[in-house]
Amino acid sequence: MNSLNPSRPLALFGLLLAVLCWSGNALVARAFAGEIPPFALSFWRWSLALALLLPFVALPLWRHRQQLKAAGWRLLLVAGLGIAGYNSLLYSAAQTTAAINITLVNTCLPLMTFIGAGLLLGEWPARRAWWGMALAAIGLLVLIAQGQWSRLASLSFNRGDLIMLLAVADWALYSLLLRRWSGYLHAIPPLALLGVLILLGVPLILPFYLYELSQGAHFASTPSNLAAIAYTAVFASLLAYLAWNHGVKVIGAAKAALSNYLMPVFTALLGWLLLGEGLQPYHWAGATLIFAGLLLATRPGKA
Fold first, then answer.
1. pTM of the full predicted structure?
2. Range of the domain at 136
């Protein structure tokens, strides 16, 4: 990618914005795990996002119906992965695993995407990008261990972690297919593309939500529950997905995936700003290593 590309700074900013929104989404998933069942949160999140977006994309979708027809089954597969699959799996994992485990399993995303980019797209990242990924991964381990490496040995894993691993694989494939089928998908305006993906994704979630209801899993329409759904619909869905899709388009799926390492950094910052939780030296050390790794990995060039 040309270093003079004016879209690059905007794409990088968009990736940071997406991860910030998803850090809040992870907090919501954990905070409301006992209040809102996973498929209920996923279904109503995307249903609200669709209701907000549809008035703005109905006409563009009609105008681009030929492009939509050409994309065909590819749209359905991408919607199944990115809309129906990933978030439902994440919310399900949050029911039975700890926050630190979700963060740790998420470290698999850049590696999965790096290897997938080479196998599916023929875009093997440069050596510098691998070094950047390794540096960012060390920074993430500093955060997880809280500066005490013995903490890593005490970590335990359970069923929720396996679900989260599936979620990570799901998201890696979603990002790679966005890139692989860019000739089809990016012929559709970004807002309209997101609209059609949600339109296809919501019916895919519905059977699982109905089954969840049949098992007696309900939630109360309290102000806090509705606010949580509203946040996930507006920020973690509409804003974050638009920003992420643009970032993948401009800088590629593999490099975009590295921004995932920033999630624990942003989570710590949100905890400091919203919950009054103090920032410790290991937060700064881990964040510095992660940012250095991202800058190294995403710097234009071939070396």
1. 0.81
2. 7-298
